[in-house]
Amino acid sequence: MILAHTNISAQTKDMMIRLSEIEIDSSYLQEYNNILQEESRTSVQLEPGVIAIYPMYQKENPTQIRILEIYANRKAYESHLKTPHFQKYKTSTLKMVKSLKLVDMDNIDSQTMVEIFRKIK
Amino acid sequence: MILAHTNISAQTKDMMIRLSEIEIDSSYLQEYNNILQEESRTSVQLEPGVIAIYPMYQKENPTQIRILEIYANRKAYESHLKTPHFQKYKTSTLKMVKSLKLVDMDNIDSQTMVEIFRKIK
Questions:
Q1: Which of A5, A54, A108 has its CB closest to that of B112?
Q2: What pTM was computed for the model?
Q3: I want to staple B4 with a disulfide (CB 3.0 to 4.6 A). Which of A70, B48, B106, B120 is the partner?
Q4: Count of beta carbons in the 10 Å neighbourhood of residue B20
């Protein structure tokens, strides 16, 4: 598979960073996680402007999902919202989501982010 | 500078992932951010077992800090706690921190994390 590669250090100024806080209805948890996994993986693989969509859950409370999202810029984010994989995720998980908070973030130190990505082989 | 490189895909099973939630006394905010920046950058540069210490703040409430921390394993985390740069951070910021919550996380999909790191040049 060919990944959509990204030059990160040229872009930090325009980046859109978000930490989404999502609570899932426990009866749908496994189903939700499967759909989110497919959506995040597809976005990272296919969209050059999606730098990261990194989903996690709280170990002590697995219905509490956190997603670190990094987009190259606002245009990349808006284009992501229109993709078939995001639309499929959004419509199929609507009934599973109990609460959703989209929290806009910024780097304290862009250089550290760049070095983290550079460090990993 | 030579970075401490890490092979991420061999390690996902043992990883320790954390999303720290920190509130800072606003009168110390700039000072705190400077110290955190130095600590996170030094940790990523010098410690092979520190995969990521990625500090962010909430745009609408900059005293709310979030740090995504990824350690290769528990041993790497424990060794990090003993480093001079972490000890310096801890002691010099003690009075600046209003609240601190260390939330243990896990990946919903390890493969996505690996692909995010592979994607970036």
A1: A54
A2: 0.90
A3: B48
A4: 15
Residues of A in contact with B102 (CB under 8 A): none
Enter the DSSP assignment of A13. Answer: G
Chain B contact present for A115, CB below 8 A: yes
Q: Which two tokens stand for residue A2?
A: 């060919």
CB contact set of A99 (below 8 Å; sequence gap of 6+): A21, A22, A23
Give the ipTM of the model, two decimals please: 0.88
- Token pair listed for B57: 């703040």
B11-30 per-position pLDDT tens digit: 678 899 999 999 999 999 99
User: Residues near B94 by Cβ (< 8 Å), separated by ≥ 6?
Assistant: none
Domain A13-103 matching CATH 3.90.950.10: the answer reads no
Tell whether B28 is within 8 A of chain A (Cβ). no
